[in-house]
């Protein structure tokens, strides 16, 4: 089989509500903020979107089918650990992550000062060189629930190569 026919694309999406009394964790990095993301786990929307994109490329379902949001085992779970478990499962099925691109839709806080650290952390979690990872940030131009700072959304696309 040619290398081109072994390529698989996957896309992922996640949104979590912004609330008081929670830490804001994005891309495995704690970002100082008055509001944090609500979820069963640490609610890292970026890592959840990347995890779902990987699962999508490998036809392996979605994050909730692997880590139930009613299982106490995953309460406050580190999403980096969940992502690495999914990469391990994908590797066992013969899939190798090639690159990823992602977008955070985040009205506030400003993410630019944290981008280099997030970028490095995501690359490390994914076992990729930093030039195979990209994270973009957008406000929502103050429109809708994202623009009102009620939530942060993440989108991700990955390319994976199957061994056969
Ligand atoms: N939370 C955010 C959102 C955006 N940025 C950076 O600002 C640029 C302009 O954003 P617009 O939504 O006005 O297009 C964007 O390209 C990011 O570089 C940010 O740092 N943090
Ligand atoms: C990660 C899990 C599991 O702790 O919980 P949440 O943090 O609520 O995240 P979500 O994006 O709703 O989906 C998957 C869940 O099963």
Automatic annotation (TrEMBL):
It is an enzyme of class 4 (lyase). GO terms for molecular function: 2-C-methyl-D-erythritol 2,4-cyclodiphosphate synthase activity; metal ion binding. Binds 1 divalent metal cation per subunit. The record marks 40, 139 as: Transition state stabilizer. Gene3D superfamilies: 2-C-methyl-D-erythritol 2,4-cyclodiphosphate synthase (3.30.1330.50). It comes from the Bacteria. 4-CDP-2-C-methyl-D-erythritol 2-phosphate binds at residues 14-16, 40-41, 62-64, 67-71, 148. A divalent metal cation binds at residues 14, 16, 48. InterPro entries: MECDP_synthase, MECDP_synthase_CS, MECDP_synthase_sf. It catalyses: 4-CDP-2-C-methyl-D-erythritol 2-phosphate = 2-C-methyl-D-erythritol 2,4-cyclic diphosphate + CMP. One of its GO terms (biological process) is terpenoid biosynthetic process. Residues 7-160 form the 2-C-methyl-D-erythritol 2,4-cyclodiphosphate synthase domain. Its EC number is 4.6.1.12. Pfam families: YgbB. Keywords: Isoprene biosynthesis, Lyase, Metal-binding. The keyword Membrane does not apply. Signal peptide: none annotated. Homotrimer. Belongs to the IspF family. HAMAP family: IspF. Involved in the biosynthesis of isopentenyl diphosphate (IPP) and dimethylallyl diphosphate (DMAPP), two major building blocks of isoprenoid compounds. Catalyzes the conversion of 4-diphosphocytidyl-2-C-methyl-D-erythritol 2-phosphate (CDP-ME2P) to 2-C-methyl-D-erythritol 2,4-cyclodiphosphate (ME-CPP) with a corresponding release of cytidine 5-monophosphate (CMP). This is 2-C-methyl-D-erythritol 2,4-cyclodiphosphate synthase. It comes from Limnobacter thiooxidans.
């Amino acid at each position: 089989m040619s290398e081109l026919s072994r390529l698989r694309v996957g896309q992922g999406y996640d949104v979590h509500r912004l609330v008081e009394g929670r830490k804001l964790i994005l891309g495995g990095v704690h970002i100082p903020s008055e509001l944090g993301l609500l979820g069963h786990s640490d609610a890292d929307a970026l890592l959840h979107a990347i995890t779902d994109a990987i699962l999508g490329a490998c036809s392996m379902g979605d994050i909730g089918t692997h880590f139930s949001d009613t299982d106490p085992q995953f309460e406050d779970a580190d999403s980096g650990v969940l992502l690495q478990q999914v990469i391990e499962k994908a590797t066992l099925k013969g899939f190798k992550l090639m690159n990823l691109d992602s977008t955070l839709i985040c009205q506030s806080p400003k993410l630019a000062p944290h981008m280099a650290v997030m970028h490095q952390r995501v690359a490390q979690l994914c076992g990729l060189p930093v030039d195979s990872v990209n994270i973009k940030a957008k406000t929502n131009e103050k429109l809708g629930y994202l623009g009102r700072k009620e939530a942060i959304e993440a989108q991700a696309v990955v390319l994976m190569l199957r061994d056969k």
